[in-house]
Every structure is written in C-alpha cells, then in structure tokens.
Design brief:
By secondary structure, the protein is an alpha+beta fold. It folds into 2 domains: 80 residues, PH-domain like; 155 residues, no CATH class. The protein is 42% helix and 20% strand. The protein has 8 helices and 11 strands.
Length: 290
Amino acid sequence: MVSYSKLEVNGEWNSHSNEPTEVLITFGSISLNILDKRGEPLRQWAYSSTFLKTRETSKSMFCPDMEETESLYIFDQDAVNQLIFLCNKTKRRKITNLFPWFFLFILLIFSSVYFSDYFRKVTEKVAASLTSDEQESNLGNMMFSEISGVSYCDIKKVNDYIHSSDKNYLSTASRNIELIFINLKKDSSILFPGGKLLVPYSILEEKDGVFKLVEITKEAKKAIKNKKAISKFFSDQTNKSLLIYIFGNFTHLNFDKDNGFSISLDGRPEAFDKGFTNKKWLKLKKICKL
C-alpha cells in the first residue's frame, strides 16, 4: 500500500449526548486521534476496536465499538483506506500475538493432565512396592472386617476341609487362597489383598457350582500372581490417602469391599477338573450351612 502522507483530515464526529461536531482526524501509531478545530483532543479510538460501519462514495462511517455509542464520518477516501488498513493490520497483529499464549495455554492443560495421570500411576506403584505380603494380608483382613450385616460360612472349617481333601486342582490351587462363602448381593466373586476370596453362597446350590468354583479359583490364582487385588485396592484410593499411606499411616485408606478385585465368569465354566466328587461337594455344602 502507498504510504499515507496527510497529517490530518476533516471529519464529523457524532455522539448520542452531543450535536454532530466538525473535527480534525490524525493517525497515531496505535490509535485514531479525534481533535476539535482548535486541536484539543476529544476522543482516541484504538485501531483494534474500530470498524467500518457504512461506506459510500462521498463519505464513510466508522464506530469505536459494537454498541455504536459514537460515530465518525470521514470524507477523504485516501484517509478511509488508510484507516481500514490500520484497523485490519492491528487486528491481524492482535490475533498473531494471541497465538503463542493460546498455544502455551493448551500446553499447560495437556501437561497438567499428563503429569497428574503420571503422578497418580507412580504413586500407586510406589504404594504397592512398599506393601509386603504380610501387610497386604492385613489390608485384606481390614477390608473383610468392614463388612457387616452379611452372613458367611465358617471360614476355618471350609478351608481346612478343602485343603485336606485328596489332591486335585481345587485343593492345590487354593493353597494361597482363603475361600469365604458369603451372601453377596451380586453374582461375581471378590478377591481382597492377601488372598481372601469372597464367593457367592448361591454357588453351592447351583448344578454346576463345583465347576464354577474351580474356574473362580483359577482366575483368583492368576490375579494373585499379577498383584491384581492390591493394584485395584490402591487405584480406588484418593491421592491424599495414598501419600499418607506411603509415609506410614493407613488409617485414611478406604476399606470398602467394592475396592476388591471382581472376578466374573463369562459363559459356562470349563469342566476340565471337577475338583470334588459329588459326595465331597455335598459334605462341603453341609459344612457351609448357613
């Protein structure tokens, strides 16, 4: 664009509270200056907010805001073009200047989400690594002690009977598992840290209950090996509780039974190892009579 050389041009300034006034207009570096005929400043409009309202052959009208509280008529077409150029240039520069800040804002959001998630995962792993087998068993005991208003079979009698049975998959696989037949409201079993396995009491009444118990025990054995129960337990804790636990205090942990690892069977169980004879299964049911 050819450089604009006029120092000032005439115009007409209008305000809702004043009569139309003939004014002098000069172009500053960042704003349009509106002066009275004596050269006294009346208004100063920023190029970034000034916009062209109407354009005609003889004159063009500009406003400083969307409310159009004021208006300015400019009659010199070169001055009109210069003002349009300055307004557009300032708006482009404003958008360009905002882009780095917008990028930084997005980067900060991404970083906070990423590092928050990373911090959480690291905290859970640290908590799990600090938990000994004995401590894990204690956590499981505390979870079980929080259960109230639910009946369950004699734990010692049931496990002694299963472990003393002839060698089979169920008696062998359950060596590190403490079976607890309990009146759960849901069909899935729950594995607590330390090997406590809560099994719905209703499984004893099912036709294929023995097969289901073998499958559940099999899945629990895998979960214990992969530390699924303790991982699930820590994943359900708050950040504050985990940090307090890491520093040696577990009183803030949530010991709700829903923080245990859920085990569900998809479809019918595989009858690869019955585990018990019908006679032994009936005896187990008698031992576990509620």
